[in-house]
Request: fold
Amino acid sequence: MKLSRRFLVAGIPLLVFLSSLSASAQWDKKPHAEWTEKDAIKVLNDSPWGRTQTFDSPMEQYRGPVTGRQGQNPTQTNLPPSALHLNFRVRFLSSKPIRQALTRIMELKAKGAVKDEVAEQLKQFSSGEFLELIVIAVAVDASDAGANVQQANALLLQGGTAKFKNNTFLEIKGGKRIFIQEYQPPRPDGFGARFIFQRIVDEKPFITPESEEIHFVAPLSDVYRLDRRFKTKEMMYEGKLEY
Reply:
């Protein structure tokens, strides 16, 4: 299946909340059909194709009453507030490992109950080639629900191509940049917002193994500025540079 602008399978929900889990790197040790859920989440959140950027923000209020030390007023509230860890998951959705990790999680959650038609869609989605576009997906989750999470999600939902076209880019060795071509807000599938870039520039791929590093920058607001780097030498997968 060759994927260009129509690159997502409609109607396939993401069946799991992708929180931060640790696991040893398995993408180069066994086929994706044998990945565990921890393996797949490792690929999504902490791998050559998926990075996490975490922001720590003070929560608006305490979750409960503050208990003072012996001899102190139990109602004293001048202790530092708890921190909310807001995680932005930055993933090359156009890379096979990320798509394979997403479909593997769906399969595991379904516990063998995937219908033949959906199974075929998942197979096509995970194995398809992106020939024209580079797609970076950004999703957000947090260690605790709160207003900051709603604010971050609102930034993704309310964003548009016009907002990002002059400040969101991919940069490679030598300072060469391409700016975003299109922005798509998050959909019900759970994959996150899509930042879309041209794959071919001046009739050749913008990114090659010689690019050394891919620097993704997307200022969502004055508070949340996404800034992640990916090493091309680490992005080789099944004998090919995947991005």
Q: What stands out?
A: DSSP finds five helices and 15 strands in the chain. Residues 96-110 form the longest helix (15 residues). Confidence is low (pLDDT under 50) at residues 1-24, 59-81.
